[in-house]
# Entry
Amino acid sequence: MQETEILSTLPSVSPKPAERPSREERLQVFDACHIGVVLRAVLFVEVVLGVGVMFQSASPMDWLTRLALVTGGALPSTLGWLLCICALKSQLQQLPTFAQYLLGTLLGFVAGLSTCKLLIWVLADNSDWPLVASGFAGALMALALVAALHLRARGSTPAATTARLTELQARIRPHFLFNTLNSAVALVREEPAKAEAMLEDLSDLFRHALAEQGNSSTLEEEITLAQRYLDIEQVRFGDRMRVQWQLDAAANLAQLPPLLLQPLVENAVKHGIEPSARGGKLRITTELRGGRVVLQITNTLPETGEGQAHATRGHGIALANVRERLRLLHDVDCDFSAGMQNGLYRVRIALPASHANPP
# Structure
């Protein structure tokens, strides 16, 4: 029988030679291919431009006009800088950190010059333009963006991400194990045969929950775990709980934080099925739409005296935990929403079909 190691002694510490940064870690310094980086870079440049044009604006309308004009020249240059950094990332990773900063700053200088040249061409103005000043302004903004990318990479290295995910998963595990064990204990005296089958499923759940896990698991693994949990709850609720699965096999390889789906399913059972005397329905669907996977968990709600569906109010801990772990793994590439819709409670997650590494 394979036992899960719960308590262990500290491993012996042996001196290791200093290792050079891995390919992935150095590459992340210039991870400009990520949509979150692009949005933040454009917003940063726009804020700097907005403050800069204030010095020559006579009124709010004049400021808006000048900002729109300058943005028309700066936005293509900013996107061009990001595109160059993204295209050159395999070459940049071979360079030392200082050279990476220097190249990023020089590209920013060129972007500043191109912004000024573009405005001269659009306005057909042959008067003196501050070309050198525009170049240095672009270089300083590029240097700030490179520094931000560097700090972002340090904050999302595998060690930092794993530590944060471990902390969040640690909050889920005791709650998860207690509730599943409580479901099994409820049947031990009344229906021993069902309790035995339930405890077998519970053993598999415990083994999975206590095992050491990486930064992510696949949607297929999360669905298997949720199915085992619902098998346990099905024994407890019987015909009161009706579960419908609508799964798209093409979506199975999408990356999710470990133990993410089960708390959502548990919430649906706790707030939708358990409080209702007549029970309710639970529906889990997955679908691949283009390059994104959409996961939805929908459950009915207990009715009030007037026959209207009413959502019981919880603490929101599970939903906040899920949202935070999705943000760590996918940043702005993931959409998460939860709330009432057409008399049902729906949780919807849309994420990239494949995402090998955290941002």
The chain has eleven helices and seven strands. The two ends are 38 Å apart (CA to CA). Residues 35-170 form one domain. Residues 1-28, 157-161, 355-359 have pLDDT under 50 and may be disordered.
